[in-house]
Amino acid sequence: MPPDRLAWLVLICGLAAWGIIWGLIDTRRIIEAPFLYATGMVLILCPQMYVTAANPTKVPDDAFWVHSVMVLLCSLALYYGYGGKTKAPRKMPWYWEIKDRRLFWLGFACGATGSLGSFQLYRMGDIKEWRGWPVYWYTLSTIALPGISLMVISFVRSRRPYQLVMALCASVFPFLSIINAGRRSATIVLPLIYVVPWMLQRRHVRPPRSMLVLAGAACFVVVYAFPFWRDRFSEAGGAAQAISDKPLGEIVEEIFSGKQDKVLEVAESMLVIGARYQRGRYEWGYETIYNSLVELYVPGSLIGHDLKDKLRIGDGVSNDWVAEVYGVPVTFYTTKNGYADVFSQFSFAGFLVMYGLGAAFRRIRDQANERQSGRAVIAMCFLVTVPAAIAYGAIFLGLAMQVPQFLILWLACRYCTVRRPLRRVRPAEGAGRPRNLYPPNGLHSPALAGAVRP
């Protein structure tokens, strides 16, 4: 391994280790942005960076170091944005209380609609061309997970058993996508949907570190082994036969030795960053979002594909031009990571986006944990996977892809929360100024006692 690449690898692995250690010191922090971000680095970024560092022919030197600099800047910016000095939230004479019945029925509607979309996709079987109805049904299926999240929040607040039953029923198709198709995103997101509201409610609970280590090992298997196994899950013999034919040890050895030809998200992101750096081709925050909205939500079967092509700016969402720089084609279906995404928009200044994300997540966390804002609780449950996705998912492309989820989040915050005044407690004679009785946990009933704050 070249010494310069080894130095970059050690530095970035150190940044990831810092976030993991920070979270394991107090395991309540496992749902906070630095730990989740570091988890994504450990599972996705660091192993694939090792492969590209140990096999210099996979990625040119300039692409490797530009990507490494961007990872360093973004990591420091996100950590500082989250952990740096923040402005204390302004004390208001009111707080947002969750209306659990409204929240449940909104979640039920989303879960039922998403299940309908998933059912139609299962009926279609193996889809050869993603146009027309398959795209429409897939878009509907994506709102199942937000619906489950809303139902779980409502259940842990009200403890009505039928709400949990409905949430479990809506989880059937996401669970089938794990068993039959080996979907990595559903494998990681579905457990978090149930864990995060529970941890926000039971604020004294600290998961044991041994359980977190086992969960990390399971996530590693999901990330690297499922892409090899999932194509054979639906064949005769199922998962057991697929695992027997391709053992986990063989998969790991092939990946880390560089013998495996399977596409690596980080390697392709390095190529995109290097090509952008050489050409000075940046999009300034609007081109990717606009083209993605056109690609995802403009029905070409209704208005005509020629007109849809004319609506795009430049090459649309294609990265075919990258092959002109390095002579290596970039696969269109592999998502480029968050570092490549922000660099494609703003060059090295893209690290400011990461700083903003860190500060935003810190504010949401403070509002959910300390002030117990019902809206912040809902937002935290919806957005908890975003920091972990930076290591393998595009931020600006994700904004376009998650439009239905953001719409559901807005509906939940707008119509399923109500503003309540803070109660004030009269002090005993000579006891000093009055104190506000802050609202109880956003997941609890307002009848429960809250924390007294000055």
Automatic annotation (TrEMBL):
Record-given protein name: Oligosaccharide repeat unit polymerase
Key words, A-Z: Membrane, Transmembrane, Transmembrane helix
Membrane-spanning ranges: 6-25, 34-51, 63-82, 103-123, 135-155, 212-229, 342-361, 373-393
Domain of life the protein comes from: Bacteria
Annotated region described as Disordered, given as residue ranges: 433-454
Organism: Paludibaculum fermentans
